[in-house]
Amino acid sequence: MGQDLSKIKRVYDRIAVEYAQAFTGEHEKKPKDREVLQRFSREIGKRKPVWDLGCGPGQTVRYLKDMGVEISGLDLSEKLLDQAKAANPGVTFRKGNILELDLSDASVAGAVAFYAIVHFTREQVKKAFCEVFRVLQPKGLFLLTYHIGDRTIPVEEFQGRKISIDFFFFPSEFISRCLREGGFEGVEIIEREPYPDIEYESRRGYAFARKPPGRH
Questions:
Q1: By residue range, what is the domain housing residue 118?
Q2: Is residue 29 part of a domain?
Q3: Would you say residue 22 has pLDDT above 70?
Q4: Confidence (pLDDT) at 215
């Protein structure tokens, strides 16, 4: 049984303003984030469309758009989407979730998901990867980030707000295996240590994966 999506939505609606204040511009503080996003931008080139799945207040959308990527954002929380729209006029943002994407098969050139799976159980992660695979075009590129580990952390407070939600950490071996089993090829995992005094002190993982040519 997975974590309730309506609960995730309620939590982020509640903390949307504080979350946006805390995380807008976060990539500027994290060199590896910038490195992988720049690589994603180079590899996507002018292919479109690109979607940020679980876009939050739009910080990753903004970073990629500034590099010339034609990108839109999708999130569960209307309140976070309000923050994203205010910070990124002219960009398309809409409500949705990575477990049941309202996108056609083979319609997306690339997708990024920065920590979009942090509230998902293992079964939900597998389902999310299958959905991303479905909507990607042949040779489509997927960039994912996650917390490395094998544990679940219940969180009761964030940015001074009382909340109740679980965060899930995953071994890189699990992420790699799920991507391959979901049909992806060229799976590459990059790991790093946390940036002190900037973020929660967990090891971080980035995964690049592609949909094979000829797959629809």
A1: 5-210
A2: yes
A3: yes
A4: 64
